[in-house]
Amino acid sequence: MVWTRFLTSLKNQTHVTCIKKTLVSRGRGFIQTEGKLKSSVRRFGSTTAGKGEDSFLKWFLLLIPATTFGLGTWQVKRRQWKMELIDGLTRLTTAEPIPLPVDPAELSGLEYRRVRVRGKYDHSKELYILPRSPVDPEKEAREAGRLSSSGETGANVITPFHCTDLGITILVNRGYVPKQKIRPETRMKGQVEGEMEVVGVVRLTETRKPFVPNNDVERNRWHYRDLEAMCQITGAEPIFIDADFGSTVPGGPIGGQTRVTLRNEHMQYIVTWYGLCAATSYMWFAKFIQKI
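The structure assignment produced for this chain is given below.
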């Protein structure tokens, strides 16, 4: 009896132990399985976030070639506008001259228009705008955009001109003289007397630009075209023309000093922006398309 009870008790304990081992074994498997599941979910989430970030970066970087292409196209239109403006100014300065109108309202819309006047100079009241260099349109087009340009400097000679047919006195930019010829006594041959015809280009008053010195009225050193002040000194009407090259006399200032050359660097900008567009487009393609 005792032995039978001992065997029965031993069997019951062994069964419980097996059950416990089975539960522990199954519990460990569940924990391991749960860990793998969590790891898989975490890896899936990070992969999805990474793909979202890559997609955003992909389309955001595409803005660079798109923007540079737009800027290049804008410069193409700007260049066309600038060329039309230059052509228009050139046509005005080479058109057939018209009689000079004396109405200020009409003159304000005729800048760069060629006009014809007849009268005589008053050399005793010359004004000098300096420093100036002789106008060379081809050279200025080459040097456009440079901080400095080579070449000699001098002055433009502004002389009152009494129009006999209109009965008024205007100001005429006779043209350029080198600095050693600024004083009238050094070019007496060019100080013509008597009545003559002058063809010139209408110019309006100027405002002082940044870094341009103020006009020194007492020393007769002018740095920009201030018609109001010039007319007070000479007693002329606020009408100003640049004499053309054909009005030049031997020994006198060289006419044709109207600058109509505008800075036209748009072709450089076009090449720059389109070049950046091509380079960034290739980099974007190699990064996001070719890699796929």
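Interim note for the steering committee: The two ends are 82 Å apart (CA to CA). The chain is about 45% helix and 15% strand.
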